[in-house]
Amino acid sequence: MATTQFVFGNEAALAAALKGKLIEKQSITATESKTPSGTAGATTAAAPDDGGQCLCRVSTDTQVYVSFGSAPNAGTDAIRFLLPVGATEVFAVNPGDKASVITQA
Fold first, then answer.
1. Is the four-CA dihedral 87, 60, 31, 98 of positive or negative sign?
2. Cβ 104 vs Cβ 64: under 8 Å
3. Side-chain-facing half-sphere of 67: CA atoms under 13 Å
4. CA 25, 96, 31: angle at the middle one, nearest 5?
5. Cα dihedral sign, 69-11-44-74
6. pLDDT of amino acid 43
7. d(CA 39, CA 14)
8. How many angstroms separate the CA atoms of 84 and 14, rounded?
9. 105 within 8 A of 74, measured Cβ to Cβ
10. Residue 44 has what pLDDT?
11. What span, in angstroms and rounded, lies between the C-alpha atoms of 47 and 25?
């Protein structure tokens, strides 16, 4: 089954995670996995509002579009990102942003 994982946190935490280092649990504020389909699905998890740079690390095992915002819709948002199979990318997001994912049609 296809899965796309979203990890929201601050810049330092996600930089350490990308380098394979251990990170403090409190630095990661939220994680959520979604099963992408032909209908856009948004996370309930959101970026932290802790005064620092917010990032979202996205990993997917299927080709998907992702978008971010207060009410994101990866199927219709003007700004969305295509991630290929097996991709892991980090995106700068605004505090309180959620993520949305949809499979490529």
1. positive
2. yes
3. 18
4. 35
5. positive
6. 97
7. 28
8. 21
9. no
10. 95
11. 15
Q: What is the pLDDT along the chain (105 residues), one digit of tens a residue?
A: 799 999 998 766 666 666 655 555 446 678 999 999 999 999 999 998 877 778 899 999 999 999 999 999 999 999 999 999 999 998 999 999 999 999 987
Q: Would you state the structure tokens that stand for residue 62, as one six-digit string?
A: 């299927």
pLDDT reported for residue 10: 78
Amino acid at 36: P
Residue with tokens 């996205």: 58
Strand partners, 57: 7, 90
- The token pair at 64 is 């998907």
Helix (H, G, I), strand (E, B) or coil at 15: helix
Every domain of the chain and the residues it spans: 4-103
Q: What residue has token string 């939220």?
A: 30
Nearest to 78 by CA among 69, 86, 87: 69
Integer angstrom CA distances of residue 59 from 4, 17, 40, 50, 98: 6, 13, 17, 24, 15
